[in-house]
Amino acid sequence: MLCPIFKLLRTLLADNLGAIDALLGCGVPMPSPDTYEEFYMMEPNEQRFCLDSWFHCINWFIELVNAFSTHTDTDNIRKVCLRVYQIITLLELVAEKLPKSHDYKPPNCKFHYDCKPKPLGPTKSKKGATKPKGKKVDKQENNETVNGSAPVPKAAPAKPKQGKAHTGKRVMWWDVVTAYKPFFQELDMEVFVLLSKELRAPTETQLNCGSLLFLLMDYVDKVEYMLPNHTKRIMPFKFTSHKDVCFTNIAKVTPLSFAKTAIKNLDVLCVKLEQIFECN
């Protein structure tokens, strides 16, 4: 309930949040990091509790980024970039632990639509009358921890576990974003003002390549939704698929207005991509 209430507060204050900008730097209480070390040994309800905590925290950070990304204060912009980095760090933690929790459904972040998660990793083809045979794939079992006072989990090196070796495809954080997109809050278009910020190393609290990838993935999804290569009528309050419910905010904007904004962002995007190319 926190995210919808915060959205209502933003509306009432007309996004004039200077009096409560301390929220941007506040720590978030999380389960003890010790509980994550043996995640695969936990009871199902304990695994769900940890995963729910991560999803709630990611959505809260997304709302903070939405609210404060347009602020001109240097310190606030630094904190916004840090929150984007922490979102990715939490997504990496979810990507590692989620395959070990079978039949998990994240908490809905949209009260008006009951979402169903898509399977992560390769799926078996169900075409034809006969049931295809497939081999079971062991899930990767790595250990990570999360800081209880401020959720900035640090990735730990993989440790060998007893049993069969891991042969399945590793789940990456962008796989989680794609498969579980309806369970994450939507980024506002104003967030993409961050694309104009200078790229820095991942260890610095500024926009880095990982953060840029996170923003670009969402930006491309919005462009493909609002400017499809075929005629489409957008109905803001009619949801026929996961794809529709992921763009409830952007659907309120006219395609023409969105196209003008997208064209303005082209120069900035080209500069960022050139910087990445030069770094490589």
TrEMBL record:
This is Uncharacterized protein. The lineage of its organism: Eukaryota, Metazoa, Ecdysozoa, Arthropoda, Hexapoda. InterPro entries: FANCD2. It comes from the Eukaryota. GO terms for molecular function: DNA polymerase binding. Keywords: Isopeptide bond, Nucleus, Signal, Ubl conjugation. Residues 120-164 are annotated as: Disordered. Residues 1-22 form the signal peptide.
